[in-house]
Amino acid sequence: MKLPLTLSFLLLLACLKLSAQTKAIQFGIKAGIATTSLSRTPGTDIKLDKADKSGFGYFAGAFASLNFNRFSLQPAVIFNSSVNKTTENIISGDIVYRQYGKWHLYYLQVPVNLVYNIPVQGGNFYMGAGPYITKILSGRFTPDPNPALPYAYGVPNFPPFNASFSGINSNFKSFDYGANAVAGFALDNGFMINAVYNLGITNIQGNDRYLYESTKTRSLGIALGYKF
């Protein structure tokens, strides 16, 4: 019994040493800021006074890098926040309800990118792309405290409320799928900087389709990181 355990332990040490020498497997952390937006197609009962605007969000997480010569497979787990500014008039018969403010969404994203590395003096440039899956954790609508337009038909702006992800009046779906692209530079000492673009493919619009026909996510960010 002791001999197999000893051999297994020695094999594990050998694998760890080989991985450290060849950097076949590395781990890292990263964090950054991003411009985020919801690309939305209005339904029959909504009028946009202005185009929806992007806001600033943040993200942070950890990743692994499985290295094969100049290629790397990089799965990650990232916590994201997004902000989207909206200016809407919701039409209900002869009454128009105002909804001016910001949507804040918080979600967990798992991307898997295939990355190509280009060695240069002091480090390497890299670029890649891949799919991702997102689980939306929570969301909240915050009204504009000083809207530019007066109350529509005497009806005040919507109060703050939490997003719903189920039921007939859900605001959003719980899951999102898409693709992202990344490009950056990694120093030999482990520090790195990159830009990342996320393109949501899935329509995450909830069941209140009379407001919006479709809603898709977009973001463009910059991050700093460190690879061990």
TrEMBL record:
Sequence ranges assigned to domain Outer membrane protein beta-barrel in this UniProt record: 20-204
Segment forming the signal sequence: 1-20
Keyword Phosphoprotein belongs to the record: no
The entry's keywords: Signal
PROSITE patterns: PROKAR_LIPOPROTEIN (PS51257)
One Pfam family cited in the UniProt record for this chain: OMP_b-brl_2
InterPro entries hit by this protein: Beta-barrel_OMP_2
Protein's UniProt name: PorT family protein
